[in-house]
Amino acid sequence: MPQRESFVSNAMQTGTFLLIAMEMVAAAIGQGARNHSSPADALRPLIRTNAPVIALSHVTLFDGSGSPARHDQTIIVDHGRITAVGPSNAVTIPSEAQLLNERGKTVLPGLVGMHEHMFYISAGGGPGHLILGTEQAESAPRLYLAAGITTARTTGSIEPAADLAIKAAIDNGMQIGPDLDVTGPYFDGPGTFLIQNQRMNGISDVRETVDYWSKRDITSFKAYMFIQPADLQATIEQAHAHGLKVTGHLCSVGFTEAINMGIDNLEHGLIVDSEFDPQKKPGVCPAKNSEGVQTLLQLDVHGQQIQRLIKSMISHHVALTSTLATYENSDTDEPPAATLRQTRATLSALSWADFLRLKALLGKPHHMGETDVVLALLHKEMAFEREFVRQGGLLIAGCDPTGFGGVVAGLGDQREMELLVQAGFPTAEAVAIFSSHGARYLGRENEIGTVEPGKQADLLLLDGDFEHDVSAIRKPEIVFKKGVGWDSAKLQASVAGIAGQR
Fold first, then answer.
1. How far is 499 from 476, CA to CA, in rounded Å?
2. Which of 104, 245, 288, 481 would suit a FRET pair with 271, their CA atoms being 20 to 30 Å apart?
3. Burial class (CB within 10 angstroms; exposed 0-12, middle 13-18, buried 19+) of 276
4. Which parts of the sequence belong to the Amidohydrolase-related domain (predicted)?
């Protein structure tokens, strides 16, 4: 599978959806509706609590604002809205409330995942061993919600119509998962690895494609590694004409060039910015090479080149998406054993076997003398993200469940939170990056992203002391979405052993 292995190597540097009541789906998509309904009867066994009024008492709270943890707090939820938050000795609990005494546990806002997918790379590849993504209509939505992701942007869709159908099913209570902001098809060019990626055929094709999907509840578009500069410019202009945003996992176009075109968001960070590669040619994604990697490693985040890039991003209001988990996964010694145990329990047997095969095949993918290049690049990216935020940049986060199979929906987001803290962000700031920052980018900061009166009751209850042990993010107990408390363990169990296949 040489082409697939080439894809894996580049990406580390860088199914068919079952029809769901098609009349309902078509109507919901056509209306662009967010008419959320009560959960279907078949989903109710997955609910821990659905009382109209709920009091979560004696919790440690990270409210998503970036402020330090608040201790011994009580949160009142009334018909899907937060109505009170404050010290437990000062909040009056309504007599009709279901009281949940959660002393010793931690509450975060529902997480806003900003680089998520509804697909997973198929085991064995696609026809001719090209890369094929399989839509995860059953497993992905539940795994995201189980991990505390209550809002997710599908940052690149291989089957946008299927993603819209999943969204409609969630909105109508027929499926359970996060609120979805669906991104249109990948906008790519010659050389793309993923067979479902759309290779743009000039500016008129770009404009027609943007116009088509803009009418179908798409909220953004994503440019990919081989898009041509003129096509990227046209994508941005046409999307903006519809009031929509464009993000990019770029290579043929460098970050600074894309910023000057007006792009709204850049994915992954410094690791995929090709503009510093000495072999970079206009409009061409350079092949991975030791010279380019070495050049990147030698760059100082406080030096003139990186500082100029950061200032340009901030002055043009370009957000950066952190996906540390997907890069850590390319090192065979990482991620930790706990992550791998959860991954094995979640994936289908075929997908797990394929992951192990590729992991062994890659071995230690890059070494330069005594330097483990994968970890060196990861630490460089961490330093870049810290400096970007220090200067006022908007950092958002997600897990990007692609690569060679070790990053899984939801589980990867938990690891991303741990890595943000390992990168040096205070715990409260890491929570804000994964909640209120994403809400702000989506323009939904008045509804979600923080725990405060008036907001939608999207909450993540962790069975542990997250303040002093960030690994408590791996112990979600109840995930409240619009006030309905879903049992995290039951959600995970309901799709155990099928992820990667459906």
1. 19
2. 245
3. middle
4. 106-482
Residues 6+ apart with CB under 8 A from 42: none
Q: Would you state the pLDDT for residue 451?
A: 98
Instruction: Give residue for tokens 């993923």.
Output: 194
> Is the distance from CB of 176 to CB of 145 less than 8 angstroms?
yes
User: What burial letters (b/e) apply to 168-198, b meaning 16+ CB within 10 Å?
Assistant: bbbbbbbbbbbbbbbbbbbbbbeebbbebbb
Q: Is pLDDT above 80 for 47?
A: yes
Q: Return d(Cα 158, Cα 379) in angstroms, integer.
A: 31
**Percentage of the chain surpassing pLDDT 70?**
86
Cα–chain-centroid distance for residue 123?
A: 22
Cα four-point dihedral sign 409, 414, 419, 420: positive
Which token pair is 428? 């409260």
Q: Would you say residue 6 has pLDDT above 80?
A: no
Q: 121: which DSSP letter? A: E
**Cα atoms in the 13 Å half-sphere on the side-chain side of 132:** 16
pTM across the whole model: 0.90
Which segment, 53-57, 190-194, 493-497, is predicted with the most confidence on average?
53-57
Q: Which residue has the higher pLDDT, 240 or 123?
A: 240
C-alpha to C-alpha distance for 297 and 287, rounded to whole angstroms: 17
Percent over 90 (pLDDT), the chain: 70
Count how many Cα atoms sit within 13 Å of the Cα of residue 127 in the half-sphere of its side chain: 2
Q: What angle do CA 161, 164, 166 make, to 5 degrees?
A: 110
Residue 186, pLDDT above cutoff 60: yes
Give the rounded distance of the alpha carbon of 246 from its chain centre. Answer: 15
* Amino acid in the structure at residue 207: R
Tell me if 112 sits within 8 A of 439, measured CB to CB. yes
Q: Are 481 and 429 in contact (CB under 8 A)?
A: no
